[in-house]
Amino acid sequence: MVGNAVLELAEERALASVGRWERRSLGVVRAEDAAEFARAAGEHAQQLVDPARDDFVVHPMYVVSLLRGAPGADASEFRPDGMYRDEVPGTDGLDVRLMAGGQDVRWVGEVRAGDLIDLRRALTAVERKGVGEGFLLLTVEKVYGSARGTLVEVTERFIVR
Question: How many domains would you assign to the chain?
Fold first, then answer.
């Protein structure tokens, strides 16, 4: 399959999964991992990078960066380009190019070390864009929560070419 046929198949698969919510446990937020993320993001504020502090807080973007719980994924869960096979709905096993198409993040609650994070996500829109063969713009809604309720809501878009 080449060109337009692959894109049409991706579109067909994506449309078939619109509105289907999936759940995944991302495990427990470990203060050490959150601090490492903050340091890697270039943060210097001690309350973000030193988990031994009494006023330690989890970087707001840490939970949004989680795609799998520890210890991560095995080799079969990756596409040849290094993305997770299920990260962009409808594209698993297809020879398509994937790009980030934007992300809106709404913080609802504070993520705390020790929170058991649950992710719910659904593909909510599939749009054909561009001229000629064009591309697909897929919109995915994600809700990160814990026993205390919703923590973060994310709208993520992916470009499929």
Answer: 1
Query: What's the pLDDT tens digit per position in 136-152?
Result: 999 999 999 999 999 99
What distance in Å separates the CA atoms of residue 32 and residue 51, rounded to the nearest whole number?
6
CB 83 within 8 A of CB 98: yes
Copy the structure tokens of residue 130.
């561009």
What does the H/E/C string look like for 51-103? CCCCCCCCCCCHHHHCCCCCCCCCHHHECCCCCECCCCCCCCCCCCCEEEEEE
Domain of 151, CATH number, reads 3.10.129.10
Cα–Cα nearest to 24, from 141, 114, 156, 145: 145
Q: Which domain holds residue 55?
A: 4-160
Question: pTM to 2 decimals?
Answer: 0.88
pLDDT by residue (tens digit) across 6-56?
999 999 999 999 999 999 999 999 999 999 999 999 999 999 999 999 999
